[in-house]
């Protein structure tokens, strides 16, 4: 069995592992939710929302990778398996089928509201335990909050 030496104390390691694990699940599921809506959006604002959703997906995937690799770096194997994400994600479930543009905007405003609150809590939880992981989560929050603003602006 491969063991990666953690730079953290046991107590810090436990806290940071949990925060990064849950952050990864949120980000992987956000990328899936973004593509699902990207493919199924309909309505007069199709093109705007369709391409905005690819920005959601690109950012979520980029940050998922950074979070997962930080987890590996501190000695905790990342778990981004479909079964883990399906079982543990806290994102609201999406229904299959076409979705009107206004409904996509409302859905993503609600979705970002939840993800940001959880990310802020995780950043707080790891602040003392591991400033490096804290910094990574702050970068995630910066991106999510920017996109949250854009979704709210879309609502008009
Ligand atoms: Fe596409």
From TrEMBL:
<feature type="domain" description="Ferritin/DPS">
    <location>
        <begin position="18"/>
        <end position="153"/>
    </location>
</feature>
<dbReference type="Pfam" id="PF00210">
    <property type="entry name" value="Ferritin"/>
</dbReference>
<protein>
    <submittedName>
        <fullName>DNA starvation/stationary phase protection protein</fullName>
    </submittedName>
</protein>
<comment type="similarity">
    <text>Belongs to the Dps family.</text>
</comment>
<dbReference type="InterPro" id="IPR008331">
    <property type="entry name" value="Ferritin_DPS_dom"/>
</dbReference>
<dbReference type="InterPro" id="IPR009078">
    <property type="entry name" value="Ferritin-like_SF"/>
</dbReference>
<dbReference type="InterPro" id="IPR002177">
    <property type="entry name" value="DPS_DNA-bd"/>
</dbReference>
<dbReference type="GO" id="GO:0008199">
    <property type="term" value="F:ferric iron binding"/>
</dbReference>
<dbReference type="InterPro" id="IPR012347">
    <property type="entry name" value="Ferritin-like"/>
</dbReference>
<feature type="region of interest" description="Disordered">
    <location>
        <begin position="72"/>
        <end position="94"/>
    </location>
</feature>
């Amino acid at each position: 069995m491969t063991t990666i030496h953690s730079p953290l104390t046991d107590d810090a390691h436990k806290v940071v592992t949990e925060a990064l694990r849950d952050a990864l699940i949120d980000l992987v599921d956000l990328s899936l939710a973004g593509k699902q809506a990207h493919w199924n959006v309909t309505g007069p604002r199709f093109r705007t929302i369709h391409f905005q959703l690819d920005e959601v997906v690109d950012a979520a995937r980029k940050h998922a990778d950074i979070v997962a690799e930080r987890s590996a770096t501190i000695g905790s194997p990342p778990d981004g398996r479909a079964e883990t994400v399906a079982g543990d994600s806290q994102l609201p479930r999406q229904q299959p089928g076409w979705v009107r543009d206004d409904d996509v905007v409302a859905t993503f405003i609600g979705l970002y509201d939840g993800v940001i609150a959880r990310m802020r809590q995780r950043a707080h939880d790891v602040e003392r335990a591991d400033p490096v992981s804290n910094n990574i989560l702050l970068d995630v929050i910066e991106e999510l909050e920017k996109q949250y603003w854009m979704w709210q602006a879309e609502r008009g």
